Amino acid sequence: MASARTATAAAVAGLAAVLVAAWSYPVHANGPRMLASSQVTASPSSSTWQDNATGLERVPLPIFANASTMTVAIIDTGVDTTAPALGGREIVSYSVTGKPRDVADRNGHGTFIAAIVARYSGSARIMVVKAASDSGTVTTTAEARAVRYAVDHGAKILNLSFAGSTTSVAERRAIAYAIARGALVVTAAGNEYALGNPVEYPAALVQPFGSNGRGGAGLAVGASTADGTRAPFSNAGSWISLVAPGVGVYSAVSPLASSTMFLRDSASPGYGYGSGTSYAAPQVAGAAALVWSVAPSLTARQVADILKTSASGHGTWSDDVGYGVLDIAAAVALAAGIS
Description:
Layout: H1 2-22, E1 32-35, H2 49-54, H3 61-66, E2 71-76, E3 91-95, H4 109-120, E4 125-130, E5 137-139, H5 140-152, E6 157-160, E7 162-163, H6 169-180, E8 184-188, H7 203-206, E9 218-224, E10 242-245, E11 249-252, E12 263-264, E13 271-274, H8 277-294, H9 300-309, H10 328-338
Parallel strand pairs: 2-4, 2-6, 3-4, 6-8, 8-9, 9-10
Antiparallel strand pairs: 1-5, 1-7, 11-13, 12-13
Helix pairs in contact: 1-6, 4-8, 5-6, 8-9, 8-10, 9-10
């Protein structure tokens, strides 16, 4: 056991060195993160538009049941397991902020994302690790602790729907730790296009700046509109992997939520609409669980490549939408052909 730990530590150190050498980082000792979401400002789309846009409805039903072997971790503001979309579903939860069992989501962001993952990942096991404050800020120290906890407790896919313009040693080491242990890290690209379109982290740690969507160790996800173009707020650039619906996305809203980032659905209590790359990323994380369950021998890098290759760009990359809009049915079919 000791030798395995030593070998793993060496792998993490080596990967961290490669990441540091790849490009220069703006470093902050405990860099702040903000949730990558915003309130809907236009009339919401139908509750199923994102399902149609991503091909979710074309995925064969047995695939959803097959995903029970996968665990998706959501590192966020906690979760309200009484939300209608999550009712009856077993969710493993833990908090790295204060009391370990206090995972109540008083913000609403984590619950909204958990319900998206639940819808897109079939029967996959959902783990929620609370790392954000009720106001929606995440320190890279809390993020790092949450990443390590999730990986150590069996998560194969991690969803990080927050972003900041600086990074830190703690964050880089935690992402390297997850990658070295075979996890796929899915991140939100951020919503600051109108504010100078900054490179955001942790997204640029998994899809490096200058990579033009190639390689990388995870996925940086932007937001698309109903016509498949980049949402006006969504960041763009060489570090974008692909996009998924991010405007007027429909999901569960926690009754405890104090946040104003959602437009509640008056016709369906417990549901609402939200916009942001925050809500694009969990669609990709859920899709990754379906793809991986079809071909369990794939590596995290291979799962990421399948999701990019099968997206609407058909292998063509652009700095606005990366490899295009997520196509879950095409990704699952591609994985099935490989398995």
